[in-house]
Design a protein that fits this description.
The structure holds two protein chains of two kinds. In chain A, α3 packs parallel to α6 and α4 crosses α6. The longest helix of chain A has 18 residues. Chain A is globular. Helix content of chain A is 30%, strand content 24%. Chain A starts with 5 loop residues before the first strand and ends in an 11-residue tail after the last strand. Chain A is built from ten helices and twelve strands. Chain A is of the alpha/beta class. Classes of the chains: A alpha/beta, B mainly alpha. Chains A and B meet through α2, α3 and α6 of A and α2, α10 and α11 of B.
Chain lengths: 327, 293
């Protein structure tokens, strides 16, 4: 990963509240190489979706303020671009799929129309050519008899099918970066697995880099090459997926792994993390996770630990890292 | 009106799902079906007026002035001996147009304005809504009468005036619809594809604004028919000797005691058409409700 495709550095985003700016993301940094998959994991309110919307340039303009940092795509700072230039990038260089496939398609048009529209938005071509390409895309997202489905309205499709259509629409502009914000949360478990497999195939076949955002570590584990763990607007740990899943260094990551349900009963008890995400306006002193951390010591409340390298590419922000293996 | 009808049926197969679902739901409401049949009957009568009307609606006869209903004149005759039934049939044309034209005028102006106001927001929204508030502060009919009087007594001016008077309600509705559609996930999804604001507004928001407006259209058509009747009653709408239901009532009021049939026939026609439009509007509201089954 010499020159990453996407390089987010020290991103800080706040939302205008009644009593000043409420920070949602505070100095988050992560990078994603071309054709790779980065999983951002975290609880609700950890700032992962806000970080994704910042990359897209789709933060609500009335309330959101980017207060610091940079978002580099191929070394170009997106935050410095004009709104019009950012709009050009959307759907072309960067595309996004959302959490709610049931409501993310326009009920007034056929799915084919909507895919063809996305195709023609970035590459002007005849309606017939766009139809051909749209059908090819439908086939690529594994929709059976795409010629017939082309003329169907969204309400006739199941949630999984609609998410496939959303992926087809996102792929219409041949993006190099696909942001998937909780792409399977609204779907059945069996369908979730199919969508994950589809995203993996797309990453491999088309070389599309994927920024996967989820609270579901199991989903991230199945797809991501790299993992970044976000909490209270900060990245607490990041590194290669295999390394983080096998040797988590931050107590929060350990807590998240302990809270993943497994199929085999009795193997390990399901453990929750006590407490809840701190109020971003009144963060606890020192480490943001310290009030909930089972290993917290006196020094944790005194100073916030910086991200430290523990192994090649593996960083964690914890005073106690690296943890000693316990027998 | 004929073109509007055929266009509607031609679109039916293309507009698959949603339209068919709404029609199926409408079919389960007997009252809406009856109302629809009554409206359709009035439309057919209006279109076929020359063949339905037994006599010339303008031909007066001093031998048959204010005659009660009989075999020769089914609904009697008016003060100059014209056949009330024939005038009623020809008047249906005016009244149907009076229901249609103002609604088209109101829709064609309020859709872009409401879309602009609801989608763009900001000071544009602020200014438009204050103008709408000001118009809403004056009763609908008063605005229509003032405009019609200003434009001059003529049936087309009356329709235009009614359409403009109906604007504030439609702009409000269109704005509310635009605002609610703007917040839909698929609009956000379209934005993530880099669609331009104009494209989002016209292609993704506008079509989804129509269902709530459709209901208002049917109710508004009823109000417009009454308004036309009122304006004609006041002499600002249809000019004699051409018939409209309102102008027939206007003529009848001087002979209420001696020739009540002159008032009863157009009165019943207005009542029947207006109640049918309102019932159909209610039915449409239920059929279009996404929460219904």
């Amino acid at each position: 990963m010499s020159a990453p495709l996407l390089d987010v550095r020290g991103l800080a985003v706040g939302f205008a509240g009644e009593d000043g700016l409420v920070p949602a993301v505070q100095g988050a940094s992560f990078a994603l190489g071309a054709g790779a998959c980065l999983g951002i994991v975290g609880e609700s309110g950890s700032g992962k979706s806000v970080a994704a919307l910042s990359v897209m340039g789709l933060l609500p303009p009335a309330t959101a303020r980017i207060t610091g940092g940079s978002v580099l795509l191929d070394g170009r700072d997106l935050l410095a671009l004009t709104p019009e230039a950012r709009r050009q990038l959307r759907g072309g260089e960067i595309a996004m799929i959302f959490q709610e496939p049931m409501t993310s398609l326009n009920p007034a048009f056929t799915i084919g129309d909507q895919i063809a529209e996305a195709i023609r938005a970035h590459a002007p071509m005849s309606a017939a050519a766009a139809r051909e390409r749209a059908i090819a895309l439908l086939r690529q997202v594994r929709i059976a008899s795409p010629e017939k489905r082309y003329d169907e309205y969204p309400h006739r499709l199941s949630g999984g099918m609609r998410q496939r259509v959303m992926i087809a629409i996102a792929l219409a502009g041949n993006p190099r970066l696909l942001i998937a914000d909780e792409p399977t949360t609204a779907l059945d478990v069996t369908v979730q697995a199919q969508i994950v497999a589809l995203l993996r195939d797309i990453q491999r076949e088309r070389g599309t880099a994927i920024l996967l955002i989820s609270h579901n570590l199991g989903l991230i584990a199945g797809l991501a090459d790299e993992i970044a763990v976000m909490y209270a607007g900060r990245v607490l740990e990041h590194g290669p997926a295999a390394r983080i899943l096998a040797h988590p260094e931050h107590p929060y990551t350990i807590g998240l792994l302990g809270a993943v349900p497994r199929a085999a009963p009795g193997e390990a008890p399901l453990v929750g993390i006590e407490g809840s995400v701190p109020d971003p306006r009144h963060p606890p002193p020192g480490c943001v996770f310290q009030p909930r951390c089972p290993f917290a010591e006196a020094r944790c409340a005194e100073a916030a630990p910086p991200l430290r390298a523990l192994a090649p590419g593996h960083h964690a922000a914890c005073h106690l890292a690296p943890l000693e293996p316990v027998a | 009106m004929a073109t509007a009808l055929t266009a509607g049926t031609a679109q039916a197969p293309a507009a698959d799902g949603r339209l068919r679902r709404v029609l199926r739901r409408l079919q389960r409401q007997p009252t809406s079906l009856v109302a629809g049949a009554v409206i359709l009957a009035f439309i057919i009568i209006a279109l076929a007026a020359p063949w339905v009307a037994p006599q010339d609606p303008l031909a007066s006869s001093f031998l048959a002035v204010r005659k009660p209903p009989s075999a020769a004149h089914w609904l009697g005759t008016d003060e100059v001996g014209r056949d009330v039934f024939s005038r009623l049939v020809w008047g249906a044309r005016t009244s149907m147009l009076a229901g249609l034209i103002p609604v088209l005028v109101a829709l064609s102006i309020s859709l872009p304005l409401g879309l602009l106001s609801g989608y763009a927001g900001g000071w544009i929204d602020m200014v438009l809504m204050r103008v709408v508030d000001a118009m809403l502060a004056i009763p609908f009919l008063i605005i229509a009468i003032a405009l019609a009087a200003f434009l001059g007594p003529d049936i087309w001016n009356a329709m235009l005036a009614i359409g403009i008077a109906a604007l504030p309600i439609f702009v409000r509705l269109a704005r509310a619809a635009a605002m609610s559609v703007r917040a839909e996930d698929y609009v956000e999804a379209t934005r993530s594809l880099g669609s331009s604001p104009l494209r989002i507004a016209v292609r993704h928001i506008l079509p989804n604004m129509l269902p709530p407006l459709l209901v208002q259209t049917s109710v508004m058509a009823a109000s417009a028919i009454i308004a036309e009747a009122s304006l004609s009653f006041l002499g600002l709408g249809q000019q004699p000797p051409a018939p409209s239901w309102g102008s027939m009532l206007n003529a009848a009021q001087r002979h209420m005691a001696a020739a009540p049939w002159m008032a009863i026939a157009p009165g019943c026609a207005i009542f029947l058409l207006v109640i049918s439009l309102n019932v159909l509007g209610d039915g449409l509201r239920d059929a279009l409700d996404p929460k219904g089954r």
